[in-house]
Design a protein that fits this description.
The protein has helices spanning 3-11, 17-24, 28-40, 78-85, 111-122; strands at residues 61-69, 90-95, 102-108, 128-136, 141-142, 145-146. The chain has 161 residues and is an alpha+beta fold. The protein has a four-stranded antiparallel sheet. A two-stranded antiparallel ribbon has the order 5-6. Strand 5 (141-142) and strand 6 (145-146) form a beta hairpin. Helix 2 crosses helix 3 (28-40). 11% of the residues are buried.
């Protein structure tokens, strides 16, 4: 396993084999074999573009949902997390320490759509004790990518990104 190669791919999944070869000091064939091996082992799970949704007219609304749940005997949080992650609206699910159990990242077309998803799908689930919804108002950085645009928003700037 080559940590440097993994870090480079996580920064930019579109690097060519030639570019990765130059940056890692490996030849292109070695890079290709390492990537193929890591994909086969499930270490590399996929490649995804990071979209700045705020730049689109049809921007999506995102929310972070805190779920407190009752862990299940012999399954803990796994069964609940697996059920939650099957919803199309759900982007990510994390087991957390602290004040709540599961962190669920959700996307929808409107604030109301996200709120209704929480109210009608997540909150009534068996073993969900409570929910707390936090709407994402602006993304500044996501997956190590700076999303700060060149144009300040209409509130003005407090600091530069």
């Amino acid at each position: 396993m080559d940590i440097k190669l993994l870090k480079l791919l996580s920064q930019n999944g579109r690097y060519t084999l030639n570019e990765l070869s130059v940056m890692t000091g490996l030849d292109e064939q070695e890079v290709a074999e390492k990537i193929k091996e890591m994909e086969k082992e499930g270490l590399i799970r996929g490649y995804k573009a990071i979209i700045d949704w705020e730049r689109l007219d049809s921007a999506m609304v995102s929310a972070i949902i805190e779920l407190k749940v009752a862990p299940q005997p012999d399954a803990g949080f796994e069964d609940i997390a697996c059920k939650v992650m099957r919803y199309e609206e759900v982007e990510s699910v994390y087991l957390m320490s602290g004040g709540y159990d599961l962190c669920v990242l959700v996307k929808g077309k409107t604030f109301q759509e996200v709120a209704m998803f929480v109210a009608k799908q997540l909150a009534p689930m068996k073993f969900v004790l409570s929910t707390s919804t936090h709407f994402v108002l602006r993304r500044y950085k996501e997956f190590d990518i700076n999303l700060c645009g060149d144009e300040p928003d209409d509130r003005g700037r407090m600091s530069l990104c």
